[in-house]
Every structure is written in C-alpha cells, then in structure tokens.
Design brief:
Layout: H1 2-8, H2 19-36, H3 62-75, H4 79-101, E1 129-131, E2 137-139
Length: 140
C-alpha cells in the first residue's frame, strides 16, 4: 500500500513524504471506513509494508491510498489535489456502502471465510404509551 500511495502522490524517489506519515494516514483511512461501515470493525491496521488490506473488496482497496494521498497533499498545502483525492475517496466509499446495502457486494471475513452481517439493526417502538388529558398513562 505504501508503494501505491507513493505512486498516486508521484513520490517516485521516496523523498517527499515520510513512510510513517503514509502509514498513519492509511490507518486513518481504515478508521474512516469503519466509521461508515461498522461491520468492518475487525479490520486491522497496517503496520508493516507487507501487510495486506483485509475485508475490503479488491476493487476498493485503492480507497486507502486515495485517502492517504489526500491527507499528505493537505499537509503539504496542495489543497486542490487534496480535495480531488478526498472527494474520490468519499464518493467511492459511499458507492461501496450502497452496494453492500443493496446486496451487490458481500464482505468476507478473511479468517473464517464467512460472509459478514452488514445489515443495520433498526430500532423500533414495541409499546406506545401516552398520557391522556387527565395525566394517566394509556397504552395503544
């Protein structure tokens, strides 16, 4: 992933951005993805260069790089490029969420091979109570 970030950021000589910053922003991207898709809360951080992104479908792994590049460019005060990468990240993340909710994409747990339950529990009222004009509780 670090090489992918460097390619997106056009840092081919490894001289513009520090590896530590790239790794930090990749993990920040994981936090953002978990925030939008809570079912992925077991997704591990990337620690070494050989770590593999888990849980996210292969065609969406580049999202981590886009987020990281956006943060790096923002740090470097290249705001137009940062905004472009961040907008693409958020747009593709929303697309992924929609596809998961519509059942078009399934998230597979890489350790067990099981499909993760990505449904969102809906809270609803089972008993409705209200006060009548005399202040007494009545059930519906």
């Amino acid at each position: 992933m670090i090489r992918k970030v460097r390619a997106h950021a056009r840092d081919f000589n490894d001289t513009i951005f520090r590896k530590e910053d790239i790794t930090m922003f990749l993990n920040e991207a994981i936090d953002r993805i978990i925030q939008v898709l809570p079912a992925l809360n077991n997704m591990p951080y990337l620690v070494s260069e050989n770590d593999i992104v888990e849980y996210i479908p292969r065609e969406y792994v580049h999202l981590l790089a886009n987020y990281s590049v956006a943060r790096l460019y923002s740090q470097d005060e290249r705001h137009y490029e940062a905004t472009t990468f961040m907008n693409e990240f958020e747009l593709k993340l929303a697309e992924l969420k929609e596809k998961i909710e519509n059942g078009e994409v399934e998230i597979i747990d890489p350790h067990t091979g099981d499909v993760l339950d990505t449904s969102i529990a809906i809270d609803y009222v089972t008993d409705n109570y209200f006060f009548n004009r005399r202040g007494r509780v009545e059930g519906v």
